[in-house]
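Let's do one together. I've listed all components of the complex below, 965 residues spread over three lines.
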Amino acid sequence: MKTRFLSIILFIGPSITLMFIFLIIPIFFSFFLSLTNFGAFAMYDWSKASFIGFENFTELFKDELFWKALFNTFYCLIVALPVTVILALGSAIMLNREQTYFKNFFKVSYYLTFITNTVAIAIVWRWILNSQYGIMNYLLGLIGIEGPNWLGDPAWTMPSVIMLVVWRAIGYNMILFLAGLQNIPEYLYEVAELDGATRWQKFIHVTLPMLRPTMLFVTVMMIIGYLQLFQEPYMLTGGGPLNSTLSIVLYLYEQGFQYFNLGYASTIAVILFLIIMGMTLLRMRATKST
Amino acid sequence: MRKKKTSFFGQIGIHSVLFFGSLIMIVPFAWMVSTSFKLPEEVYLIPPRWIPNKPTLENYTDLFDAMNFGRPFMNTVIVALSITFLSVMLSSMAGYGFAKFKFRGREKLFLIVLGTLMVPGQITMIPVFLMLNQMSLVNTYEGLIFPPIANAFNIFFMRQFIKSLPDELIDAAKIDGANEGFIFFKIILPLTKPALAAITIFTFTGSWNSFLWPLIIAQDESMYTLPVAVSVLGGQYTERIALQMAGACIVIAPLIIVFLIAQKYFIKGIALTGLKG
Amino acid sequence: MNKKILLSVIVLLIFSVSIYSSTVKIWAMGEEAKQLGKIASVFEEQNPDITIDVQAIPWDNAYDKLLTGIAARRLPDIAQMGTTWMAGFGAMGVFEELTPYIEKSDIITEDHFFDASWQTVSLQDGIYGIPWYVDIRVMFYRTDLLKEAGYDKAPDNWEELYEISKKLAGRKGNYGISLMTNEVQQFFPFVWQNGGRILDDEGNITVDSPEFIEAIEYYARFFKEDISPKGGGGNIIQEFASGYTPIYFSGPWMVSLTRQQTPQIDGKWDVALMPKKESRTSFIGGSNWVLFKTSKNKEDAWKFIEFMSSHDTQLEWYNILASLPAVKSVWEEPALAEKPMISLFGEQLKDARAPLTIPEYEEIARAISRRLEEACYGVKTPEEAALAMKRDIEKILR
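Okay, and this is what the predicted structure of the assembly comes out as:
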């Protein structure tokens, strides 16, 4: 039985229309903008912007700050991703044991960080990491470590950003892993035990392979999320000092909404889009081939 | 669930690790709350004081009097509720359509919807800003509310859920002469409560916490949302840490309350998304 | 029935009021915007047919938001405008030229205001704003800590500033001075004091002149030798009170804030003129009023600007926010003249400069601050930083 046309329009129409207006058309528009010199001068009268071909792209590839931003973003991704996976999976495994008590308390306290507003909690972290009055260095001092100038020393700023990123991500991913672990049938472990497998062997040969779908989902989401790093550096350090925490999206925001080089910023957006697509596909292919 | 016994020391070890983890998660919140009740002279004490000697509400009253935090608070409530209501409504309708309607091009259209999931928000930001600017919708509620409504994830999630409901339910109702509207509101929606709860919570959390878009679209303080308002609490002349902490509390507390009440749905919801994805 | 009549009367009333009263929309920033209401209500009393509507923009985002609003022609009637932004936004052709208004005015004349202030409103081909308040930097220092270190006067020149702050930095866990690695408003005075400039009269870029390089070197040395903390810092007032950073440069608002927030150091600190090299030049900033060409309400808007420029309002504004009047006559009031700390700001005003008044200023300032930071962190030598600045500025002016 075919559905009436009117029903289709009424049910699907509004969402699709909004999606076209705010998502799909803008994507193409963005590609187009990246080929123009659209700037503040053209805001009032669009005809003042002109088409400049791939000039923005060649300019961008020569732009020292863009490379810096790219480097910082990948620095975050490459460090934060494995650390998050290890900590989240580790906690999930500990929580998944039958003999673990206070499960709900642990779940809730770990998850709390994820629903928290990033901007607000970054302000709190900025205070915690304050080199002089922050509790971080105070606590480190108690165990005899002289804490660094977290947000003032270019060598320590990115680790500070990553610390906040990971801190926020553990709980959410832990819940995902936990759901994945609970879906592994018990008999697989029993069989392995009969074969005399050690705990580690069971982890390598049963848990990890069975977690592959979860792992794929978790890492893809993380790649997409971490490549869009913005709020943490924006609030903690504003991208500084020495642009040591300038991320791609932060640079895009600066170019687009502080200097109003909208054409140039669109170019950054297009590149980011391509990077995210590329990385995501790469990750998916990696799973397929194993 | 492995039944193998863990030694007593193993148990202690595992629980202390987990407990230490919890501590790391909770301490920043505790420190935020504690500082937000401090007078300036207690803020900068070394060694720090966990419980203020002279707790004060001054920072909170300042926030609402001098900093006019009432306005961004109301804005955030209005914007987050509107986005949540409209998005959940429209996505579940579309989800129903994609799950149960029969028409040509359905799968292709749905693939387009799914495709947008991969698109980072930043790429649409500039064009949408220019469009809204052209329509004089910058610095308005409309500009804050409409762009985030179309949410591919919600549509996908609802479609998956509704797909699993038996077709017979719908067919039987159709034989009785019910129209699509009746079927959707009276039969389908009541059955999707768990899924609705999950996307309601996620959408609300997401729009409450949304930062970059309101930062761009709000021109003056009258249109600021809480995250934007709290981000500029830096202070023109000198930083007031306790005030900033109070601001952070105001942004964070409502969601924690929602979370503690609706914990079950949150955690189930995430688990669902992971498995389906 | 009665209700209906009442309702229609109310509607009629609102309607008639809205016909006869006009609204002047204002963009204002930060604390100024929050306090402006107090002054505006006096104005509204004097002019019952005019309503003032202030839209507040925090200083943090002010430049970006003004740029968006101006670029998109979403404009109020008048706006508060940072003095250093006049040329940049002025070049977008949105400000009303004010000479005809000034000619008719009883209050506003050129010599009503400080010279340095008036320079910030006179762009190439006319007068595009009216000064509101000025902001000037002087040196704040802890008299007690300096005395302990063996100095009973504020550092008077470059050598003394370096020597004293170096000595103060020797106290364990503390620093000698608080400077910022990337703040041009703190850095430019050192350039000017040394006779350096960004552009010379012919428009040549002179950031690689020996004077400019020497200023970078001098400024960066405070960071290289750990005399000043590098970023990540917190509250300047608290750090001043705790002795962590016993010297810093800032504006007049800090006087009252220090008294309010850290009464424990009352009598243990003072302000002094900038340190001398060739001169003691300081940075003059502040805000002006601009009237937008698109305003449909120019008469009333101008009336408000005139009101804000009057002697009495300026004095009142000083009392509210402790920002320094741009109107000369107000400085003779006892509220300013008889306060030694405040009159010192007046003294410093005589040797102060505004940075470049060209449209590209903001971009140039960003480039300089980026390279300056590289010099402060020792990533680049002062010479390299200066050359990089030159390259950046060449690109901007191209």
